[in-house]
Amino acid sequence: MSSVTDIVKNRFLGFLIWQSIHSSIIFILFRTILSQNGIFSLPSFLTCFSFLTFHLSLLLFSASLYFISSPHFDRHSPPYDLVLALLRCLFTGLSPPQGVLRRARVFLGLFGFFLGAALAGTTALVSLCKSESCGGGVAVVGLRGFGFGLVYGIYYLFKRRWVLEFPIIQRPLFFRFKMCLLSAVGQAIKLSAAAYIFSGVLILFLQDQFESHIRMGNLIFEQIIFYVGAFSLCLCWELSHHLHQVIHTKRYIFAPPKGSAAAETNPSEPLLAALEESTPKSLPHYLAYLDLCMVCDNNVDTWRRAAFFEETGETYKKVVAVCLRPLEHLASNLVEGLESSIDKTHQQSTQVRLPTVSERDSRFSELFNDSQLCAWCSWAVASLTARSHKEDRFGIAQLSGSNAAVISTLLSCLLAVETFLGKKTSLQSPNALMGPAGIKWATVTTARRDGATSVVGKKSGVPLHSQAYAIADVLRTSIYCIVSTFHEEMLTGARTGLLEKDWVIGGKPLYGTRELLLQKLHLFVDFRAC
Fold first, then answer.
1. Which residues contact 523 (CB under 8 A, 6 or more apart)?
2. φ, ψ at 357 (rounded to 5°)
3. Cα–Cα distance between 322 and 325 in angstroms, integer?
4. Is the Cβ–Cβ distance between 136 and 210 less than 8 Å?
5. 3-state secondary structure 296-352
6. What do you get for the CA distance between the two ends of the chain, in Å?
7. Is residue 151 within 8 Å of residue 194, measured between CB atoms?
8. DSSP notation for 460-472
9. Does residue 199 sit in helix, strand or coil?
10. What distance in Å separates the CA atoms of residue 120 and residue 67, rounded to the nearest whole number?
């Protein structure tokens, strides 16, 4: 596991190397533009010292970004909750809950990035803008740089830009970074303008503290210098942000070199070790699932996918188990949340005030934070099941019961998500499935279940429901991928009555009943599920 733990460190070191290149170019261009003759002369001691402090400020910004960046969004605790938890621990002597400690670490990390951005902005702008050309000296430039860092830090945290976003299509690093250049320049112009205005207002309120008597022409020139310096620094930070995203979200291949002894004996061992032993919700954990999804879906590493179908079937069962684990976690948590909504709705049905939308969303807000991971797992296990139709020479997928487990888990998860979105997922009469009216959901449930559905509500346009709709689309696509491949076998099983035996598990599913899963599967076989 030493190679897995070193993935993030090696990528961060590579990020620092590439960051130093573009930041050095921007520093040289800035000094060249502001030089009197427009030519960058031989560096003096002051220029070398400014260059060094400028890179130290970028190192501080990069270190702050490194400590808070994560592929998984996690909410932080408000400051008053942390104070209350600390006082409770001091007076009662009890250890705080695990969730409080985790959210406290998130809050401290975000607060550290906020302070780091402010300090880095102070140091960088003092290094870029010559203090002798600015009224008030280093103090004025430093204070305006501090305001610049505050503005950028607030924007960065408010937009949740510290969350790593994996691209849909993996492209070469240079091509991905080149695509971000125009957006980085545009963002730098807007942020530097906002920071310039904020820092100017800050100096205006503190003008009595800085005695400066300068002419109007020099004042205009100094404002131009500061804005160009703020734009240069903001461009460095924006390019660093995109470079950090590009490098850390690049696919990592968890496999021995092709043709080596390990590749001939057990090529799946590094991938399975990364999936099972890496820290959950960490970057190596996400990279392992990304690699697994690309192996199952693409035809590039067919030799790695062929190793999944080895004769004993243990590797295939392990791969299916690690893919279904996040989906089972999502379905079980949704079931618990929906059941609690049912109970609370039934208890409050006679009261005047019902739960508000924010109260409902707060109970489900953390369930879809792993939507990217669930999408990879859903598509990976569906692609692997579809590939087994032609590549499984030993019939492991069917004999081990993995096909039934995959379909049942996908259907249960889809039904739970649809119930969360307000769709009635109850059993229909047999006649309803025979004609076009089958697309209309006919409920035979009690009023209590309908009340729970209405409590969740149908509300679009917010991030929580957008993620739920996205997950539902991925689950439907994954099920249709399997149904399209095994369509002839499923039609034969539906006519002979073996569809339930081959594609639905014998025990109780995660959500709903076996009859409900079978009815939903019939809709997919008839290509009427939507």
1. 433, 438, 529
2. -65, -40
3. 5
4. yes
5. HHCCCCHHHHHHHCCCCCHHHHHHHHHHHHHHHHHHHHHHHHHHHHHHHHHHCCCCC
6. 43
7. yes
8. -SSHHHHHHHHHH
9. helix
10. 15
Q: What is the DSSP letter of 441?
A: -
Exposure b/e, 343-379, CB count within 10 A at least 16 = b: ebbeeeeeeeeebeeeebbebbeebbbbbbbbbbbbb
Quote the CA–CA distance of 460 and 456 in Å, as a whole number: 12
One-letter amino acid at 145 equals: G
Amino acid identity, residue 99? G
Q: What is the dihedral of CA 298, 303, 308, 310, to 10 degrees?
A: 150
27 by Cβ neighbours in 10 Å (0-12 / 13-18 / 19+) ranks as buried
> What's the pLDDT score for residue 452?
41
Q: How far apart are CA 476 and CA 486, in angstroms?
A: 15
DSSP string for 204-217: HHTGGGS-----HH
Instruction: Retrieve residue 140's tokens.
Output: 């004025």
Helix spans in 2-71 (H): 2-34, 45-68
In 69-137, where does DSSP find H-type helix?
79-92, 98-128
Q: How far apart are CA 41 and CA 56, in angstroms?
A: 23
Answer for the pair 328, 409: CB distance below 8 angstroms, yes or no: yes
* Structure tokens, 202: 């800050």
Q: Residue 330: which of 433, 217, 439, 410 has the closest Cα?
A: 410
Q: CB within 8 A of 386, min separation 6: which ones?
A: 481, 482, 484, 485, 486
CA gap 166, 72 in Å, rounded: 11
Task: List the structure tokens of 15.
Answer: 């990020």
- At 391-437, the pLDDT tens digits run 988 888 888 888 999 999 999 999 999 988 887 766 665 555 444 44
Asked if 186 contacts 231 with a C-beta cutoff of 8 angstroms, the reply is no
Question: In the structure encoding, which two tokens stand for residue 153, read together?
Answer: 């830090």
- Cβ partners under 8 Å of residue 99, min gap 6: none
Over residues 238-293, the pLDDT tens digits come to: 999 999 999 999 999 998 888 788 888 888 999 999 998 888 889 999 999 999 99
- Residue 187 phi, psi dihedral angles, 5° rounding: -65, -35
